Hints:
The complex is a heterodimer of chains A (356) and B (315). By secondary structure, chain A is α/β, with parallel strands linked by helices. Chain A folds into two domains: 4-229, 3-Layer(aba) Sandwich (Rossmann fold); 241-307 and 320-346, no CATH class.
Amino acid sequence: MSEIIISAKDIEVQFRVRENYLTAIRKVSLDLYTGETFAIVGESGSGKSVFTKTFTGMLESNGKITNGSIMYHGQDLTKLKTEKEWASIRGVKIATVFQDPMTSLNPIRTIGSQITEVIEKHQKLSKSEAKAQAISIMGRVGIPNAAERFDNYPFQYSGGMRQRIVIAIALSCHPEILICDEPTTALDVTIQAQIIKLIKDLQKELGFTTIYITHDLGVVANVADRVGVMYGGQIIEYGTVNEIFYDPQHPYTWALLSALPQLGVKGEDLYYITGTPPSLFNKIDGDAFAPRNPKALKIDFAKEPPFFKVSDTHYAKTWLLDPRAPKVEKPAAIQNLHEKIARMTSKGGAFHVRTE
Amino acid sequence: MSEQNNREVLLSLKNVEISFDNGGKQKFKAVQDANFDIYKGETFALVGESGSGKTTIGRAIMRINELSAGEITFEGKRISGKLSKQEDTQVIRNIQMIFQDPAASLNERATIEYIISEGLYNFHLYQNEEDRIAKVDRALEEVGLLPEHKSRYPHEFSGGQRQRVGIARALIMEPKLVVADEPISALDVSIRAQVLNLMNKLKNEKSLTYLFIAHDLSVVRFIADRIAVIHLGRIVEIAETEELFAYPLHPYTVSLLSAVPMPDPIIEKQREPIVYADATEEKTGPDYAMREIRPEHYVYCTPEQAKRYAELAGQ
C-alpha cells in the first residue's frame, strides 16, 4: 500500500451544550493512504461529519478537540488555532465539498467570482489569469460553455451544475485531500451518478486522496477502496470495501447491511434496528451498540472492546472476535450478499441493460 | 396477489393537466395528460426526479393544486374542481397525507396530543373528550408509540418516531387513501426500515391504499405493487413492480434504473450508468400515447416504438 498522507490518532471532540459536555468523537484513529478513497458510513449523529471537520479546523465554535493528534506532513493539525494558521491548509491542501450546493454557494454573487476569489486568495495570480484558470476548471468539471456561464448566478444553474461548481471551487487550489461530505445526498439519482463519476475521474487525473462521507451503502460500494463504519462517535469497524460488505464482523455493521431495502423480501418485514443511538452526553460503558444488539454478550455492557484484527486490512471493535467469545454467525439476510444482489440485478435488475 | 383478481378502482386520474402561471405571461405545464388508476388496497408508486411533477400530482389529489384540465375521481365521484363544503370535508377525511420531513411538518409548539387531535377538532369527529383521547391513544398504539407520549413535544422524539406521529395524525382521520410524499427520504437506513414495515402493517390491517411518491427505486421496489415513472411532467411508463424491473422499456426508465447504486462492491465497480440522452427535452408528438406493450405494462411511445419495445421485451 502507498504511504500515509494523514494520520489521526485518538481524536476526541467535545461540544459544550449549555452546561453539559457532549462527546461527539470518542477516541478515533485513522490513517489515510495517498490516492485512496476512504468512505465513512454511519447514521446521522454518529459523528462522521464532526470527525472530518477536525481535519480542516471547521468545528462549530462550541466544539473542541480534547484529545489526540492529526499528523499531516509532520505538522499536528490539532495544534492550529487561528484562521491565519489554518489558511495554508484549509481549502489549499485539504478541501471540502458539502452536501447542499445551494447553501455552500453565495446566492448573490456570480459563479465566476466565487471561483476566482479562491484562486486569487491562495495563488498569486492576476485577475485575468485567475479568470482563465476558473473557466478552465469549470470546463473540467463539465460545465458546457464555461466562458459564457462565468457571469451567471447560482440560481441560473441546476442542482447538479451547482454541485459541479462547488467541486470546481474545492479543486481550484489542487488540494491533496478532498473531503466529500454527502456530496450527492441532495441530488437526483441520475445526477448523483454523474457527480460520483466526475469525482472519480478527477481523482484519477489529479491524484488527490478522498474521504467520502455518506449514509448510502450503494454509494459506498461504488466509490470506496476502504470503508470505516461509525457508531456512537467511534469507528467500530474498518477494512477494504469488499471486506466490509462480504465479511462484516461487527454486529452494528451487520445490522446496517441487514436493513437495506434491497435485501427485503416482499410481504415480509424489513430488518430494523431497535432502540435509539446512545446519548453522547453520558459516559458510554462497554460497546456503544450493546443496548440495541439483541445478541450482546455480558462483557459488551461492561468493557469497551479493543480492535481485533481480522486481516491485515480489516479490524473490528467487537468482543465477538475475542477467542473466548461464543461463535455467533452473521445474520442470514446478509450471507451471500453478492449472490443475492446479483440475482436481483441480472434478470430484471437495475442493470438489465438492453441495446437499441 | 389478490388485487389482480378483485380490482376496484379507488382513485382515478383522467387527462390531468396542472399548470402554473409564470407572472401571467407564460404557462408552465408541470403535469401533462396524466392518466392512471389506483386500485383499492394497493401501493401505487409515483417515481421521478425533482421537478418531474410527482409532488404536484400528490398535491392535486389533496386538492391543494388546481387542475387546468382533466379530472380526478375518488370512488367514482369527482373530487377535482369546485366541491360543496360537505364534499370537501369528505375528501379530507378520506385522503390524508404523510410528508417527507417529519421535523418540518409537525408544529414544534404543540404537544403530540394536539397534533394528532387536530383533524378531529377541525371536523368535530369525536363525541366527547373521553372519546377523543381514546382515539388518540389508539392511533399512537397503531404506530408503535405509547399513550404517555401524548404530552410530549416533537423535538423530544427521534426522526423515526416523529414520522410515526405524522402517520398517526393521518390515520386518526380513518382515511381510505394515504398520499405519502417521500415519507422516508429524510430518515436513516435503520429507521427507514421501521417506517416501511409500519406502512405495510397498516396497509394490511386497515386495508389502506397508498400513493407512494418517491425517487428511490430500491425502496419503491420493496413497497410498491405498481409503479408509474414520471419525467418532465409526463408519465412515461406504468407497470407492476417486478414487471418494470424485469422489462424497463422507456429509455428514461432504463436510465433511472441504471443510476441506482447497489450495495455490492463487485457489481458497483463495473456498473456504467446509462445516460438518457433527451433528459432535458420532452419527447412527444401527435403520435405519442400510452400504449400497452405487455399485459398491464404501458409505455408512452409512438406505434413504431411500441413495436420495437414489444420485440425487446419478447427477447
